[in-house]
Amino acid sequence: MRTRTKVMLTAGAIALGTTTLVGASLADGRSGHGYHGSGHHGGGPGWRAGRIERLFEQFDTNGDGVITQVEIDEVRSSRLAEFDADGDGNLNLEEYQALWLDAMRERMVDQFQAHDDDGDGLVTVEEFGDRYDSMVRRLDRNDDGELTQDDLRRRPRDRDRGGSDG
């Protein structure tokens, strides 16, 4: 393989890795933004520890408790090559989709489990709606029972600081 191809694969793998990590955070609602009902994933210290643990599981390939850039580059290049079905050193949209879906599967399972309150392997209509049961009450700044764009311009915590608890 030519040096230029290796450099391009490594650069692409690094960019893909960064995109996947950011995408994973956004896809599973752990970006620190948006609505998180009680009892569901948030952005606290336990979440951060889990994320750090996943990074070490993924990138500390020699198990020495240290992640090097070389390890990251090797893992990302390997992942890109794993999904490069036609072996051309690039990912077309179909190949990238397969990689993305594989990377997001664990987060999707986490979200399924977060909805499945009773652990029976099924998400009921009630369980699916639990996170949003009190959304209007929680975000409705003027307590009129409706959400407007004005209600949503301020974060829910702002309401708790200076408004009524409703």
SSE topology sketch:
Blueprint: H1 3-27, H2 45-59, H3 69-83, H4 93-115, H5 125-129, H6 135-139, H7 149-153, H8 156-162
Describe the structure.
This protein is mainly alpha-helical and 166 residues long. The protein has a domain of 103 residues. It has eight helices and no strands. Helix 1 packs across helix 3, helix 1 packs parallel to helix 4 and helix 3 crosses helix 4. 5% of the residues are buried. The C terminus is likely disordered.
Helix content: 55-70%
Helix and strand sequence: HHHHHHHH
Would you report the number of β strands? Answer: 0
- Strand percentage lies at under 5%
Largest sheet: none
Kindly report how far apart the N and C termini lie.
Answer: 66 Å
**Shape designation:** elongated
Number of helices: 8
Low-pLDDT ranges:
18-43, 158-166
Oligomer classification: single chain
Please state the CA-atom Rg, rounded to the nearest Å. 21 Å
Residue-averaged pLDDT: 75
Helix/strand/pairing class, anyone? mainly alpha
Search tags:
single chain, 166 residues, mainly alpha, 8 helices, disordered C terminus
Brief rundown of the structure:
The chain has 8 helices and no strands. It is mainly alpha-helical and 166 residues long.
